[in-house]
């Protein structure tokens, strides 16, 4: 069952797509919004697994909203075809052009159901953190490494395997480690936590990470106080 949120700042488009969705028996429209900030303010109280997002919106566009919905099936909608590449860089399940057609919308929902089924089968774990874009859901297995922000040590950059990064607000590395699965991540210095799965090699001073979607290796400092724990974690 698809439980869908609709987000489009243009009321005629929002009304039209809502009317189309009512013809699909396996689709429940949980709520419609014409303002991304209002949607994000209510996100914690909404039970949904899919979101149809207009990309071109004032204030906060659909691409920015999608980065917060990492555990949801995202269907982008727009009248502007130039956003297609950016949409698929965010692993959207589909990208539909306005004006909407019922058969094309059905295809998008079919893809969303397939994505949701695959996500459920693989048992993806998600954490939720406060970020500079509001409450952000993060797929744990997509985290590459975490770093203390230079501009404010209370903030942490979470670097993802797809090249994106999320700025987590007002949280310590120890607090992040406490909510991450045991045995998958390790602190290697005062500034960095690394996902053990991306470690390709290490020396007495450095940890080298190979991240699939990044062309260059990432080299992080391995500090002496953390070395034994890091090595033991790799050998578990």
How would you characterize this protein structure?
- The structure is a single chain.
- This protein is an alpha/beta fold and 236 residues long.
- It folds into 2 domains: 2-122, Response regulator (Rossmann fold), CATH 3.40.50.2300; 126-235, LytTr DNA-binding domain (OB fold (Dihydrolipoamide Acetyltransferase, E2P), Beta Barrel).
- It has 7 helices and 15 strands.
- It has helices spanning 11-21, 36-42, 62-66, 84-89, 102-122, 173-179, 224-235; strands at residues 2-7, 27-33, 50-54, 73-78, 94-97, 126-131, 134-139, 143-148, 156-160, 165-168, 185-187, 192-195, 199-202, 206-209, 218-221.
- Strand 6 and strand 7 (134-139) form a beta hairpin.
- The longest helix has 21 residues, at 102-122.
- The protein is elongated.
- The termini are far apart.
Q: What is the topological layout?
A:
Elements: E1 2-7, H1 11-21, E2 27-33, H2 36-42, E3 50-54, H3 62-66, E4 73-78, H4 84-89, E5 94-97, H5 102-122, E6 126-131, E7 134-139, E8 143-148, E9 156-160, E10 165-168, H6 173-179, E11 185-187, E12 192-195, E13 199-202, E14 206-209, E15 218-221, H7 224-235
Parallel strand pairs: 1-2, 1-3, 3-4, 4-5
Antiparallel strand pairs: 6-7, 8-9, 8-12, 9-10, 11-12, 13-14, 14-15
């Amino acid at each position: 069952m698809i439980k869908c949120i609709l987000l489009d700042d243009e009321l005629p488009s929002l009304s039209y797509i809502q009317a189309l969705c009512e013809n699909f028996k396996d689709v429940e429209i949980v709520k419609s919004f014409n303002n991304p900030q209002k949607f994000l303010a209510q996100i914690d109280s909404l039970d949904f697994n899919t979101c149809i997002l207009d990309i071109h919106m004032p204030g906060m566009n659909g691409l920015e909203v999608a980065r917060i919905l990492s555990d949801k099936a995202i269907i982008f909608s727009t009248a502007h075809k130039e956003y297609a590449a950016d949409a698929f860089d965010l692993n959207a399940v589909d990208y539909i052009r306005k004006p909407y057609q019922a058969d094309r919308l059905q295809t998008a929902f079919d893809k969303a159901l397939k994505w949701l089924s695959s996500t459920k089968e693989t048992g993806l774990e998600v954490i939720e953190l406060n970020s500079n874009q509001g409450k952000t859901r993060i797929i744990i297995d997509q985290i590459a490494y975490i770093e203390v922000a230079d501009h404010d040590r209370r903030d942490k950059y979470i670097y993802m395997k797809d090249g994106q990064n999320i700025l987590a607000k007002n949280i310590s590395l120890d607090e992040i480690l406490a909510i991450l699965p045991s045995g998958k991540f390790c602190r290697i210095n005062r500034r960095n936590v690394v996902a053990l799965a991306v470690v390709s090699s290490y020396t007495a001073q450095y940890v080298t990470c190979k991240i699939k979607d990044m062309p260059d290796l990432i080299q992080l400092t391995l500090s002496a106080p953390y070395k034994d724990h890091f090595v033991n974690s790799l050998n578990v």
